[in-house]
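User: Reviewer 2 asked us to show a designed sequence for the structure in our supplementary figure. I'm pasting the structure tokens here. Could you produce the per-position amino acids so we can include them in the response letter?
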């Protein structure tokens, strides 16, 4: 049994990670300030003897005796992270800084959940980890993109200077149960709009592409990354290389849900990437990992989740 700290543990991805670690018998501390996370996401874990939830903001130091740290704290939805961009940048930087300090003191292994947004609007396709990115440092999305980039910088400097056992993953678009109804990400947006009988909103012409990873595949990749030898830091892309246009995704959702929803088009937000697809060669080689859940199967799961959620 390991003592494991998960920051942002009440969020969409964090709650699935906590659930997996608790079910494996580890002693899990979940910390969250509940800005975008929710107690409802981990309600089924509260009361278990190996799970503890703490209200805490990672821009402030936190002390605990732990063996591993998963640093997931930071809102990932544009609606949330653009609502308070200064707080978003502070969360990325100070959260990484304080968790790295804790890892250094306790000699814990620590994993940073970075993002495909570090690649910006890429000029290389698909995106390998060696690509440095094409990022606007002063745009509306920069608080998140640049915050995650500087967090990676901190992780590698702590690894080089202080020998902290650091790991970095870059998460591509992920979906699944416990996504927030109003978080603004494309899969949840389309599914909720279709279930409500509303028109599906596409920004731009719908030809921009994304790769969609089901949450259980991501959690498996995260745990495998944490279990790699100390001299392997990454970064490692974790995503599903299947690539779909926004128009294709919208049509899939309408076909699965039925109803009278149509597709409507709105102006494209600034700095929205035109294409996004991971090169997962390193994940396959170093982790023995690749996604197992195809988009059609994953959509069935999330549609069932939101159908039940909206009827409560």
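Assistant: Here is a per-position design you can include in the supplement:
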């Amino acid at each position: 049994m390991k003592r494991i700290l998960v920051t942002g543990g009440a969020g969409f991805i964090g709650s699935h990670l906590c659930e997996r670690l608790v079910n494996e018998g580890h002693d899990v501390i979940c910390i969250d300030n509940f800005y975008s996370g929710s107690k409802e996401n981990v309600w089924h874990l509260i009361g278990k003897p190996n799970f503890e939830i703490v209200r805490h903001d990672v821009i402030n130091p936190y002390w605990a005796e732990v063996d591993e740290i998963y640093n997931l704290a930071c809102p990932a939805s544009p609606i949330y992270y653009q609502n308070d961009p200064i707080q978003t940048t502070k969360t990325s930087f100070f959260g990484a800084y304080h968790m790295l300090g804790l890892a250094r003191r306790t000699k814990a292994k620590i994993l940073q959940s970075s993002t495909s947004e570090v690649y910006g609007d890429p000029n290389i396709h698909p995106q390998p980890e060696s690509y440095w990115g094409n990022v606007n440092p002063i745009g509306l999305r920069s608080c998140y993109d640049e915050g995650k980039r500087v967090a990676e910088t901190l992780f590698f400097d702590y690894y080089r200077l202080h020998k902290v056992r650091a790991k970095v993953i870059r998460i591509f678009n992920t979906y699944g149960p416990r996504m927030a109804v109003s978080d603004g990400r494309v899969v949840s947006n389309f599914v909720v709009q279709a279930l409500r009988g509303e028109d599906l909103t596409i920004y731009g012409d719908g030809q921009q592409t994304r790769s969609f990873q089901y949450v259980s595949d991501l959690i498996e990749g995260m745990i495998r990354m944490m279990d790699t030898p100390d001299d392997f830091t990454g970064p490692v892309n974790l995503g599903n290389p299947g690539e779909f246009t926004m128009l294709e995704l919208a049509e899939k959702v309408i076909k699965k849900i039925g109803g009278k929803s149509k597709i409507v088009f709105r102006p494209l937000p600034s700095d929205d990437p035109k294409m996004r697809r991971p090169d997962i060669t390193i994940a396959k080689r170093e982790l023995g990992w690749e996604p197992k859940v195809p988009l059609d199967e994953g959509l069935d799961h999330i549609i069932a989740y939101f159908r039940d959620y909206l009827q409560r």
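For the response letter, you might also mention the following. The radius of gyration is 19 Å. The first helix runs from residue 12 to 23.
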